[in-house]
Amino acid sequence: RMAQNGTAQNGPVEGTASVPQPLKVQDIRHTKIFINNEWHTSSTGRTFPTFNPATGVKLCDVEEGDKSFYVDLDGSIKTLRYYAGWSDKVHGKSLPIDESFMCLTKHEPVGVCGAIIPWNFPLLMFSWKIGPALSCGNTVVVKPAEETPLTALHMGSLIAEAGFPPGVVNIIPGFGPTAGAAIANHMDIDKVTFTGSTQVGQLIKEAAAKSNLKRVTLELGGKNPCIVFSDCDLQLAVEETHKGAFYNQGQCCTAASRVFVEESIYEEFVLRSVERAKKVVIGDPLDPLTSHGPQISRRQFLKIMDLIDSGKEEGARLEYGGVAVGGAESLFIQPTIFSNLRDHMRIAKEEIFGPVQCIFSFKSQQEVVERANRSPFGLVSAVFTGSVDRALSMSAALDTGTVWVNCYNALHAQTPFGGFKMSGHGRELGEYALAEYSEVKAVTIKLRETL
């Protein structure tokens, strides 16, 4: 599909954005609030616009909820099927106790669960939240991100079509300070689960504590270390860290933000990483030839460009990229690679949430563990090595909720996911997530002394 000169045949060229055909307003069917399997207009009469980030064109206006009641697809299907299988397997235990007593435990639903989800994976995050919540017998109120409400609202139409009882899943599009805050503060919501920034997670936890002490699950930010040892499969490490850094334009909490490479292979790793980044095709996300789309919004775009500029100013070496692509209103940023970094630099410490790969060098295993753990975040990490012993020792030493060995972004419905430190608490996915959506009740019975 690629011509000899490196340009895509009948598609976008490297480093340039094609102009996608705008989605027609009549193609969008669901823009209202979804409650009790019915579509409602906002009680305030307010709406808010939704835009296509690739073109800046307004798609439609969505009803705004307030203080009232694509790779994603495969993962979402697997998640829902996995938790559907758990629905009749959530049970307690029979416990042996002293004297003539018998104790049974029951796992009961928490109740009404509020789910506040982000814009970067709107379908997948929707599924991650409702899957375990529903399998444990709860009802759910979902607030999608204001940038991406249409995916959740379309899911609402499928939920009604599938025959869910009214009120089991409700969808309230709106803004964080209003609709999101209402969920966190509401006295009749028993649990809130949030995926997003650490700063907003702190606000949600505070609101939950000040209201009814509702249970909270938080999946927050990350500044994730990838450690590449000289005995690894070098090209595999280059490929996996490239995907980790630039997947979804770097708009991932799991982004491979800090790549530490052993000194003896550092220059070769940087060279190969740059060559790999040059093969990225920037353009319309709906074009199958495209591998790199726009950032989500102007605000996010400006934040990323500010951090890129700070890297240049603080003395990091810009190996590739570092510029916007397209016109003045474009939201496309060329994949960017920095080398020669120091740990005190902003791009070495702050979560960028954009297509920026930072490559550091290290000399010893002890040194790199200390540097990798020197972060308030602890979401994921990765180790690339040919040594099983080193893989095991490193996985024990790294302060992260997930450690990937010779792979990256290997997420599965069966595997728990969540962070240490300021990356949050609680777990998504797997059997572990069920504990976040159920209450354990102990029933102790006094038996008769004689039969």
UniProtKB/TrEMBL annotation:
Keywords: NAD, Oxidoreductase. The active site is at E219. Pfam families: Aldedh. Residues 1-21 are annotated as: Disordered. PANTHER family: ALDEHYDE DEHYDROGENASE-RELATED. Belongs to the aldehyde dehydrogenase family. This is Aldehyde dehydrogenase 1 family, member A3. The lineage of its organism: Eukaryota, Metazoa, Chordata, Craniata, Vertebrata.
